[in-house]
Write a structure and sequence with these properties.
single chain, about 60 residues, mainly alpha, 2 helices, elongated
């Protein structure tokens, strides 16, 4: 589920603060696809709509 920060805060304990995504890694998301090309398509679509691609070179991980 993707939600705005204000909506997400409604699910949090009042004693917690929302992580600053510029300095903290808070979640790991996984989308299952059949081929690397599909991953590239998803990343390119996200970038086209204002997202920022992670420039890190990922190791080849067969089966993942």
């Amino acid at each position: 589920m993707i939600m705005t920060s204000d909506v997400y805060k409604g699910f949090m304990s009042p004693s917690k603060t929302l992580a600053d995504s510029k300095t903290t890694s808070e979640v790991l998301l996984c989308l299952s696809v059949d081929a690397k090309g599909e991953v590239d398509d998803i990343v390119n679509t996200a970038v086209k709509h204002g997202g920022k691609a992670d420039p890190s070179v990922m190791p080849d991980m067969p089966g993942m």
